[in-house]
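Quick look at the format.
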Amino acid sequence: MCGIVGIVSHSPVNQSIYDALTVLQHRGQDAAGIVTWGEDGLRQRKSNGLVRDVFRHRHMLRLSGNVGIGHIRYPTAGGSRASEAQPFYVNSPYGICLGHNGNLTNYDELAELLSKEDRRHLSTGSDSEVLLNVFAHELQNRVNGKPTPDQVWAAVEAVHERCKGGYAVVALIVGIGIVAFRDPNGIRPLVLGGRTTDKGNEYMVASESVALDVLQFERLRDVKPGETVFIENDGTLHTREHHDAVRHTPCIFEFVYFARPDSILDNLSVYKTRLRMGEQLAGKIVRDFPDHDIDVVIPIPDTSRTSAVQVAHHLGTKYREGFIKNRYIGRTFIMPGQAERSKSVRQKLNAIDLEFRGKNVLLVDDSIVRGTTSRQIIRLAREAGAKKVYFASAAPPVRYPNVYGIDMPAASELIANGRSIEEIQELIGADRLIYQDLHGLVRSVRHDNSHITEFDTSCFSGEYVTGDVTEEYLDEVERRRNDAAKQQREARRMGYEATDASDANSAGTAVGM
């Protein structure tokens, strides 16, 4: 999962993009990058690390210009080398920089076609570089001079025809403006905002509405599935909808885990969906465990708090904060290896003994992926003196990999893959395990927007909405995503680190800062 932002303004955008990236930091902690355009030309800074670590005062001073895009990343495809931090750049036509959130399911096929037929060189293993080169190739084939909105739209339509999977894209065309678009299924989120100043209209696109809120842009609407948004450097806005009928299926896991609760995605409040998840989960607990002896409901911070409050309310039990979180430890879900994830759990959470001692405790989490964290948290609760430890997940069992931009582990590393609820319960060490039903989750999320009748629920159901995900593809995902493969890539990355640092940490134009 990644976060993207693009701004066309009448004043410098460097600080605004930085601020937007900081509130999108939950979407990726691997790398960050900003590209700006102005009178001084194209300026770029990108490297591995958190936003606050990548951008120093000297970098911000060099990022001049009133137009810019930003990206924060964790790797889904490719690796973690600094040279694979985004935005990526190609110099023809015009010079284009691109940031991408999602994953192309036909990456291998596209990479081969780009090399053999489009005669474009790829220097990384990132599908974002592939997407950039496809867009650049299609735009170059259609323009002779300054591109018109129709030519930009036609180029994006060609991208939709060639690229499969889930993607939200923001691209800066040097001297022209910003282009943003979303995959035809609207799997990955993208929001459009605007504001009026004394100098004219300013526009912004971002992965989540919270980034617009922080910068005081009005949330205009979500970018529609397959829609193209083209904002010229002078602030002129053009939009074109995708010409084919679409099946709007946004990713439901955004609402379960990734998005901030104060965001609105596809006209749905993430906060309210999580409240309803708690209501649905409480109903499931009452049905499956009618004679429960739960003394207290305790959330696993932070994402599950909203749901846990509702669970406690509807069960008529106490709600307590039983874990204190070290906020300087990253999300274990997106840490690179099993050993690192296991080590981080105790560094991240500490139990308040008095909330556990002698009590029957219901722990509520947003989801269970590998089960490693759940098992260790249950152990922490028992060590703190809990008499019984029940565990509830606000999401259904995660049994299948996500292939549309969430780097879930290989299927063999998902604790629910091929296992019954009873087997999972035993593995994590709970006295009882309760999962949300899939229909309850869907009902929780779609409540406010009747226009969205379906979601991408592939990690729960195994049904992939783009229709092109085969068993062979999933086998390849398994091979690439297992922890052993990631550890090998990490070892290779360490070997390249010194070279990457010299490329990515210098300052200047778009080919290096």
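Next, a different chain entirely:
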Amino acid sequence: MTEQTKGCSPHIADPAAIQLSLLQVHPRDNVLVVLQPLASGQALIEPWQEVQAKEDIQPGHKVALKLIKKGEAVIKYGYAIGVAQDDIPAGSWVHSHNLKTLLSDQMEYQYQGCNAEDLAFPTELPTHFMGYRRANGRVGTRNELWILNTVGCVNRAAMKIAEKANQQFAGLTDGVFAYTHPFGCSQLGDDLNHTRAVLAGLMQNPNAGAVLVLGLGCENNQLAALLKACPELDQSRLRSFNAQQVEDELEQGLEAAAELSQLMQQDQRTACPVSDLVVGMKCGGSDGLSGLTANPLVGRIADLVCAAGGKVVLTETPEMFGAEQVLMSRAVNETVFSDIVTLVNDFKQYFIDNKQPVYENPSPGNKAGGLTTLEEKSLGAIQKGGSAKVTQVIPYGALVQQQGLTLLQGPGNDAVSSTALAASGATMLLFTTGRGTPLGFPVPTVKISSNSDLAKRKPQWIDFDAGALLQQGQNAQDFSYQFFRYLIDIASGKQTQNELSDNKEIAIWKNGVTL
């Protein structure tokens, strides 16, 4: 990590700094982000008109603002995102063919205090949403009946119960949903613990007004042990049984669903302060604009929620590599700093133990969108955490407890990390994307496109177009306030695209031995 990345939060240019077709994110940058296609021989615009494009360059990709000599750092966001492999003339395309990572497996970190400032909540924004307050004090944004299974053997039974319950008890709840998975049998050690922890976290999510747990009976993930792992679960809103121990599991499950649905009918939305929100942050299928539009927009929401006393959860540990010191500089105390170090080093060791490169380049889709090195992707990805203090670090499957920004251990995989966010207690997910995906998860999954083209092509996937932030005359603060008000509507019951299309599923991190 270079000196210029220490103790800093990423700087994002205001839309007023955009020069029509190009963007210099930070005054120190020696590359520009292309917003509209550049043709070979085309002169850049003022104030860079003396530079001509050496080749065709697509939106989201980078063009050298000046000569970058071999071995010299390539700067974006004001930070080094890698080093030039050869001389890169001004006007040249900067990507994987001439830029490589500066990162290595082992790094040393030193606590230098917390440089994050206290945040203030704007008086002009709404302070409440209409949510469901649970017996334990937590607040849900939905009132759904969730059916969860201990083992994959009873997946179909869980799904059939949910289907019949939705037909018979429509209107009593916000819906009955079965969240199935293939695990629970023949798992050992930490692998079994991961499955149990995530299921327990989902069972305790306040968006579940009631929970039906369906087991088989002979699985390693025993029903009794799973229920014991749910200390915050309202027992009056729980029904459970093993299919091997009843005559007809479908009939038994439908009876349980009927009882729970009747109980949930009495639940009503009430005005709840924004401090009761728990918001999970996720990005998937990033492009070269993700770190300039959608992720910073979500980061502004993170700051607003934290300023109001709410909880924000950021995960995808590998996508912190190369930007971890930015987060470390915001640790509220030395204990949290040490926890971030452990978070990062443990995941690096996970890569090493499985003989995988720690600093692998972004995925093919990310590369096609303009991202080159992991530093570049990570510096864009952590924008989702805003500038708030990091108050807590929690392991995979754990529940968030502290107000402010929490870091959650988890992989970058969209389905696994989003499920982990829901299991941590998030009642809404903000999912940024430059490539698009129909994926959705147990809690409302708000899809935010980094570019307007995606929002236009896939309106059935995308809820909010952050690409509009690049329009001339757009005010970043007004834009983020508009989005915040929209999210209050979502928290109060407005459905997201994933809910409207019934794209709701879970995935559990499989990282151990199966017998």
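The first strand starts at residue 22 and ends at 23.

See the schema section for token definitions.
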